[in-house]
Amino acid sequence: MKTDIEIAQEAVMEPIANVAERLGMTVDDLELYGKYKAKISDAYLRSIHDNPMGKLILVTAINPTPAGEGKTTVSTGLGQAFGKLGKKAVLALREPSLGPCFGIKGGAAGGGYAQVVPMEDLNLHFTGDFHAITSANNLLAALLDNHIQQGNELHIDTRQIVWKRCLDMNDRVLRNIVVGLGNKSDGVVREDHFVITVASEIMAVLCLSEDMEDLKKRLARIIVAYDRSGKPVTAEDLNAVGAMAALLKDAMLPNMVQTLEHTPVLVHGGPFANIAHGCNSVRATKAALKMADYCITEAGFGADLGAEKFFDIKCRLSGLKPDAVVLVATVRALKYNGKVAKADLNEPNMEALKKGIANLEKHIENLQKYGVPVVVTLNSFLTDTEEEIGYIEDFCHERDCEFALCRVWEKGGEGGIGLAKKVLETLETKKSAFAPLYEDALPLKEKIETVAKEIYGAKGVNFAPAALKQLQKLTELGFSELPVCMAKTQYSLSDDPALLGRPKDFEINVREVYVSAGAGFVVVLTGAVMTMPGLPKNPAAFSIDVNEKGKITGLF
Predict the structure, then answer these.
(1) Active site residue 73
(2) Is 273 a catalytic residue?
(3) 94 among known catalytic residues
(4) pLDDT tens for residues 366-415?
(5) Catalytic: which of 55, 105, 290, 309?
(6) CA–CA separation, 555 vs 123, rounded Å?
(7) CB 360: neighbour CB atoms within 10 A?
(8) I want to staple 297 with a disulfide (CB 3.0 to 4.6 A). Which of 92, 262, 329, 537 is the partner?
(9) What are the φ/ψ torsions at residue 424 (nearest 5 degrees)?
(10) Are the CB atoms for 135 and 202 separated by under 8 Å?
(11) Which of 94, 335, 445, 488 is catalytic?
(12) CA-CA distances (angstroms) from residue 150 to 143, 155, 225?
């Protein structure tokens, strides 16, 4: 059986200018990065501003398991299937982070015969967007420390510096560090921290900004520290906005690539959903909606994280309104949620499936709370039995959900035609009545409790004393009407990754709360979730190499 990278490297790609031409674009609308990838020009984005909006389709999933779900694979295959049906569709996806690429999660280019190419470029440096975000983040950190070194006119309290440096790599030893050691000229000694680039507020700001003017306004509002009287100190106070915007100028432009079947794909931005808001850029999504009749996008990890943040943050702040949701599951993952060991997932086990399907049930209920029609799809494996598939299909129909089997990993777009037809039928027959889960005016504490109870199924929330003080301070500073961005493990509906299926009678533990004023949301840290991941004992990096012909090997 061929690996994903072997399939991708054997693919015959079209020049990206040809892919764009089928959308009515010319080479002048692109800024080429080689033959097979490009950025879309500002001039083109302005030219389509008044185009009618297409239909917005969100692809999400049950909680991820070691068995695999294949959300990006399904998204990609669905886009290819739309093409086979003669429909004009554009995918809008996130960029992969280098950290998990060399760690344990892997890349984000799909799999099998439903991939985005060039796969190696996408999973590695791509067009440099993440490097630009890292540089802008760390420029702000450098200007902050330099201001303190040069006399500290803003009276910054060095015990209340909240801005962290970032790096697009899993590096646990950088989570907590001391800077400024050495001579007096080397800076003020203080504790500092690193987050992974996808958790940087700069990433969130870029992904939520409509244009350069909006970007600058958001950058200006970023809080880096508090002064000795407790007043916020911002990036604007440090005179950092112009230089940061200059670093992000090219990164603001969405990237265009293609699937194995030449469906256009806009890949732009990549915040994680477990520690950030988990969606690609508003700019790319809106561009895709104006370039085609259908935009297929995805949100990170399970629907309890990615979809919730897509609805309650991205859609709330941008005015986007999804028309349908595709919820991805696999028989294997549902049996894993029913407590079957990974080694035994290929064996039929209806008892475990009936137990583990409670996870799918909760995600269906959650998505329906937003008023958006839901289509459940099973990402098919050869070991799935007709009895297992039939049980899941009946289960979905009993809950007013459409159902379709998906074989895009094996067959590409052809294997997604059934799903594509079901989505099109849903769009034609069911009208979305989308609304966020909570109102802006709801107090922050109650917003957190609403997400915990309504989406996770918790019986309550435990707030650490420090978190309660932070909530009070943020309310006093005028941030109470912002949405909340919950940082939580992706593996469970709870904040305990070991609680699979549909846990009950648990509480969510909130240990820290802080505002991302530029992005426009309040971050809530729960459980033991880390904003700087570490590498496993045997990271994926061990298997990656380049041969004598310059071909990358071992990349999935």
Answers:
(1) yes
(2) yes
(3) yes
(4) 999 999 999 999 998 888 999 999 999 999 999 999 999 999 999 999 99
(5) 105
(6) 9
(7) 28
(8) 92
(9) -60, -40
(10) no
(11) 94
(12) 10, 11, 16
